[in-house]
Amino acid sequence: MGQQTRIVLIDDDLDTCELLKMQLEDTGRMALTYTTHSEEALSVIRRELPDITILDINMPGIHGVEIASTLAAEPTTSAIPILYLSGMVTPGEVDDLAKGEGEPPLISKGSPVEELISAIDKLTAA
User: Fold this and answer.
1) Are the CB atoms for 25 and 32 separated by under 8 Å?
2) Span 63-82, pLDDT tens digits
3) Is 80 exposed, middle or buried, given 0-12, 13-18 or 19+ CB atoms closer than 10 A?
4) Smallest Cα–Cα separation from 32: which of 85, 93, 71?
5) How far, in Å, CA of 90 to CA of 18, rounded?
6) CA 126 to CA 124: how far, in whole Å?
7) Phi, psi angles (nearest 5°) of residue 61
8) Alpha helix (H) residue ranges in 3-112
9) Strand, coil or helix: what is 46?
10) How far is CA 68 from CA 5, 19, 39, 41, 47, in A?
11) CB 120 within 8 A of CB 7
12) Superfamily grouping for domain 5-124
């Protein structure tokens, strides 16, 4: 088996974190670390230096977009791809909310896990 994709998930919903950890690690290709506290997000990402970071957008404390902006400004974390995850949009609204090129892609929490896996694979492809 090849090297696993290392993922850090930042989401204030513990159930979402635990479910995604189980689903993604069940692929045998991914290892997920998470925190439910936005205040810990930067330290966890800096410590883990993952292959990809998945950020909930609407977080109490530090907003997901603010975390992404800080990561983009730091030399040690600027190359880590970011994928936004949001419960505020339905899967059908994701395309309508697509941002310009270079912006982190967005996945709805209501999307099938296969769509999340596909997005992770796309962002981490060498």
Assistant:
1) yes
2) 888 999 999 999 999 999 99
3) buried
4) 85
5) 21
6) 6
7) 85, -110
8) 14-25, 38-48, 64-73, 91-94
9) helix
10) 19, 23, 13, 10, 16
11) yes
12) Response regulator (3.40.50.2300)
Q: Is the pLDDT of residue 37 over 90?
A: yes
Whole-angstrom Cα distance, residue 42 to residue 61?
13
Share of the chain above pLDDT 70, in %: 86
User: What are the tokens at 108?
Assistant: 């709805």
Nearest to 51 by CA among 83, 98, 14: 83
**H or E segment to which residue 9 belongs:** strand 5-10
CA dihedral sign of residues 5, 8, 12, 14: positive
The predicted model gives 94-115 an average pLDDT of 70
Cα(98)–Cα(121) distance, integer angstroms: 19
Q: What is the pTM (predicted TM-score) of this model? A: 0.87
Cα separations in angstroms, 13 against 10, 18, 25, 31, 85: 9, 9, 18, 19, 12
First CA to last CA across the chain, in angstroms? 17
